[in-house]
């Protein structure tokens, strides 16, 4: 892992990444900010992904493709897809207090569960809800 981190720290300046302004595009010498780009996303801790730009026509005189680095929050982790489901009370008749994760507000909220059916965005405690669904855990 240390080798990958070292490699990234060496590569990032080549892409115009500025540690003083993480996430900002800094043109390389002789390049314009308007040059078509590929995006390099740096995610916690050291994963670099290159996303191809949408199809575009490039003038024949343009020989290089500008690359831009975007830094994603350094302790953000993937959130399970279940956490994006709306609260679902189910189909039975009980009235059980449960917690669901509201991805829009990034908070865990109470709702009433009927005891059967529903979906996986249902927790018995706020602690478990945040442990599973919050992106900054």
UniProtKB/TrEMBL annotation:
InterPro entries: Kunitz_BPTI (IPR002223), Kunitz_BPTI_sf (IPR036880), Prtase_inh_Kunz-CS (IPR020901), TFPI/VKTCI-like (IPR050098). SUPFAM superfamilies: BPTI-like. Residues 83-133 form the BPTI/Kunitz inhibitor domain. Coiled coil: none annotated. It comes from the Eukaryota. The keyword Ribosomal protein does not apply. Keywords: Disulfide bond, Protease inhibitor, Serine protease inhibitor, Signal. Residues 1-20 form the signal peptide. CDD domains: Kunitz-type. It holds the Pfam family Kunitz_BPTI. PANTHER family: BPTI_KUNITZ INHIBITOR DOMAIN-CONTAINING PROTEIN, KUNITZ-TYPE PROTEASE INHIBITOR-RELATED. This is BPTI/Kunitz inhibitor domain-containing protein. It comes from Medioppia subpectinata. The lineage of its organism: Eukaryota, Metazoa, Ecdysozoa, Arthropoda, Chelicerata.
